[in-house]
Amino acid sequence: MKNYLGVLFSFCLISAACKQKEKQADKNFISVVSLIKKQVAHVDTALYSIMKVVYFDSLHSDTQYIPREQFAEVAKEFLDIPDLSDKKVAARYKEDPAIHDQLLNRVIITYTPINPEKEEVKRQELLATPLAGEDAKVNNIIIIREISNRDSFLQKKMLWQMDKSFQVVTRSQKPGQPEITSTTKVTWNEDPNQ
């Protein structure tokens, strides 16, 4: 009788574990990395004038034009985030309930880590315009990345505006030193009048 109960208990545990794995494997997250790779490929083949401006602590700036062959390198921070289309990566993240912001007419899709203390990327957020009878059109991507240890703190707030520009605000601080903030903005198809 004890063997029968032990086998039944083991079967229940294995069954529950398999169901949990099935749930994790069924995550169909939107791949932010794929969206950005498409943008990079487009810019790489287009004839846009690409401008990079770096602001240091809001006091001074450095402006330069970027050859399109170097655009992928400049956008590397966005391409290095965890790709949620990879099932192993997706298992470490969850999708928060989507929010429809009626004022902005945007649907906000947010992915956050299950164990935030173990992940550098704390948030991947997509803002999309719902379209009648079609998939939504992604307008903006927001990524928050933080690296913190007892020696230093680094935070990057990253914004990608589809077909226009991207921006990275970096805050860093080392023990006994003031916080340093820099903002890098790269534009290629942005209307200066907007």
3D architecture notes:
- The structure is a single chain.
- This protein has 194 residues and is of the alpha+beta class.
- The chain has one domain.
- It is 26% helix and 39% strand.
- It has five helices and ten strands; from the N terminus they run ααββαααββββββββ.
- Strands 1, 2, 3, 4, 5, 6, 7, 8, 9 and 10 form a ten-stranded antiparallel beta sheet that branches.
- The radius of gyration is 21 Å and the shape is globular.
- The N and C termini lie far apart (76 Å).
- The N terminus is likely disordered.
Offer a concise description of the structure.
The chain is of the alpha+beta class and 194 residues long. The chain has helices at residues 2-25, 32-45, 71-74, 76-79, 87-90; strands spanning 50-56, 60-66, 93-95, 99-101, 106-113, 121-129, 137-148, 153-161, 165-173, 180-187.
Topology of helices and strands:
Layout: H1 2-25, H2 32-45, E1 50-56, E2 60-66, H3 71-74, H4 76-79, H5 87-90, E3 93-95, E4 99-101, E5 106-113, E6 121-129, E7 137-148, E8 153-161, E9 165-173, E10 180-187
Antiparallel strand pairs: 1-2, 1-10, 3-5, 4-5, 5-6, 6-7, 7-8, 8-9, 9-10
The unreliable regions are: 1-25
Q: Can you give the helix content as a percent range?
A: 25-40%
Structural class: alpha+beta
Reported for the largest beta sheet, the result is: 10 strands, antiparallel
Query: What is the residue-averaged pLDDT?
Result: 84
Form type? globular
Whole-angstrom Rg: 21 Å
The tally of strands reads 10
Instruction: Compute the number of structural domains.
Output: 1
Q: What is the beta-strand fraction?
A: 35-45%
Order of H and E elements: HHEEHHHEEEEEEEE
Q: Determine the number of helices (DSSP H or I, runs of at least 4 residues).
A: 5
Question: Could you give the distance between the termini?
Answer: 76 Å
